[in-house]
TrEMBL record:
Native source species: Sphingopyxis fribergensis
Record keywords: Membrane, Transmembrane, Transmembrane helix
Spans traversing the lipid bilayer: 12-34, 54-73, 80-99, 111-132, 144-165, 185-206, 227-252, 258-281, 293-313, 369-390, 402-435
Lineage per the UniProt record: Bacteria, Pseudomonadati, Pseudomonadota, Alphaproteobacteria, Sphingomonadales
Protein name: Putative membrane protein
Top-rank taxon, per record: Bacteria
């Protein structure tokens, strides 16, 4: 009894120490991200990376709020929901709290209200959301499952070759926009769904399954599939999410999350940010790292929260009429242009029509703020939590390395796209379904193995060999 109590107290003390360390890491990361953003603004101010720093008191307060949010993160081995909380904390919640004040575009009252709503909504998301009870599994033969996955992979990639043909080209990051201009008129909506399914679900699954099973053919299929997707429209997020998928897989050891590896990776990228941003113009390597990792993945989500907030303080919100969900119930106020194009025109009003960037944003900005203004943030976080809860019920208790790594592209797309886009064309829905079916193949093995043993036993009794 005494020993059990001592172990409980030790475990509680260990979790408390991890909470404090996570808060410290979150605060350090926030400070370095602000420093990185200041450097990025010298290169990208014309794209909305405005920099008019507030008072040191407000900057310090946002760093403190970011750190405090980290205190709420779960410290046990990740569940599906727990993994999403950690990923969104660094990829979306911290940038959304610290970067809008640095832009200097929002009136102080509106800025404070925005920060309060985002922080409290994120805190509620982390504290209240939990995994659901797993759905009942199907009985699915592994051979059938793998034939279906590889069939989808093959058909999808053949379709890409047929549609994009001679425009396929693996370009450097400095040639991204030229490649998009060459191929942007090809494909259409259906091909968009196909490419999203492959890049956000099928290819990551093959990659992760190949690493787990030590099957080079599956690894090659996943990587080749991602490179093929990149060679169409040069989507930088495909490269970034693939690297993060591999990184998440190796965060685990013996089925448990190694938090020390997470802290080391976060500190490494935090310190590296200002360095590669300062020397961005010096070498191609620094330029590529700065553009792909810091500008595109880590800073842009916070930038767009500020830009969308500024725009929709002065112009009509969409009530989700920009999405399939709200279109039947409300009239879209911006004609034929998407929300991203409207924001692009707002940020770069002097650009020619052909040069207007499509400012697609994370779900906080693209759905919450664009749909309902600042008060839309808690609503869209509730809907995101609902989807993650449903996903956790589908995925159940399979190998967490596989589940979390396969879901990484979907989580990255949440920091880059509408919630509904991330689910439908970002691979979120298909990834959850794939993992559910994969779980069902495990159940098939558990069901059929005892049956085979029983039949074998009966056959031995009768002198008959059962195959």
């Amino acid at each position: 009894m005494v020993q059990e109590q001592a172990r409980t107290e030790k475990a509680g003390a260990s979790r408390a120490a991890l909470h404090l360390v996570t808060a410290l890491i979150g605060g350090i990361y926030a400070w370095f991200l602000i420093t990185t953003y200041a450097e990025l603004s010298t290169q990208w101010s014309y794209l909305g990376f405005w920099y008019q720093p507030p008072s040191p008191l407000l900057t310090g307060a946002t760093i403190g709020l970011s750190a405090l949010l980290g205190m709420f993160l779960p410290m046990h081995s990740w569940t599906i929901v727990g993994f999403a909380k950690w990923a969104l904390y660094f990829l979306l919640f911290i940038p959304s709290v610290i970067i809008p004040p640095q832009q200097g575009i929002l009136p102080m009252g509106d800025l404070i209200f925005l920060l309060a709503v985002i922080w409290s909504s994120a805190a509620a998301f982390i504290l209240l959301l939990s995994d659901g009870k797993p759905f009942a599994k199907l009985r699915l033969a592994p051979r059938t499952f793998w034939a279906g996955v590889l069939g989808v992979w093959a058909v999808g990639n053949v379709g890409i070759f047929v549609i994009f043909g001679e425009t396929l080209n693996i370009v450097g990051l400095e040639q991204v926009y030229e490649q998009r201009a060459a191929a942007t008129t090809l494909g259409g909506a259906l091909m968009g769904y196909v490419m999203g399914t492959l890049s956000g679900a099928v290819n990551p699954f093959l990659l992760v399954a190949g690493i787990t099973r030590r099957q080079p053919v599956l690894i090659a299929a996943g990587l080749i599939g991602q490179l093929l997707i990149y060679s169409t429209l040069a989507g930088k997020v495909v490269l970034g999410s693939t690297l993060l998928t591999i990184g998440v897989f190796f965060v685990f050891r013996n089925g448990r999350v190694m938090f020390g590896r997470i802290y080391a990776a976060v500190l490494f990228f935090a310190v590296l940010g200002p360095i590669v941003s300062v020397y961005r113009a010096g070498t191609g390597v620094f330029s590529n790292i700065s553009d792909l990792v810091y500008m595109r993945i880590l800073a842009l989500p916070g930038v767009l929260v500020g830009v969308y907030s500024d725009f929709f303080l002065n112009y009509p919100v969409t009530y989700l009429s920009h999405s399939l969900v709200g279109r039947p119930f409300s009239e879209y106020p911006y004609g034929m242009e998407s929300v991203g194009q409207v924001i692009g025109r707002y940020v770069t009003p002097t650009a020619a029509v052909a040069e207007i960037n499509n400012y697609n944003a994370n779900f906080i900005a693209a759905d919450g703020i664009a749909g309902f203004g600042t008060l839309g943030v808690p609503l869209i976080l509730f809907l995101a939590g609902l989807w993650l809860w449903i996903s956790s019920r589908l995925i159940g208790e399979i190998d967490r390395r596989i589940a979390c790594a396969v879901l990484m592209p979907f989580v990255v797309s949440l920091a880059d796209a509408s919630l509904f886009t991330a689910i439908l064309t970002g691979g979120g829905g298909m990834a959850a379904l794939l993992l559910y079916l994969y779980r069902s193949t495990e159940e098939y093995g558990k069901i059929t193995a005892p049956a085979r043993l029983k039949a074998q036993s009966a056959g031995n009794v009768r002198g008959v060999r059962v195959r």
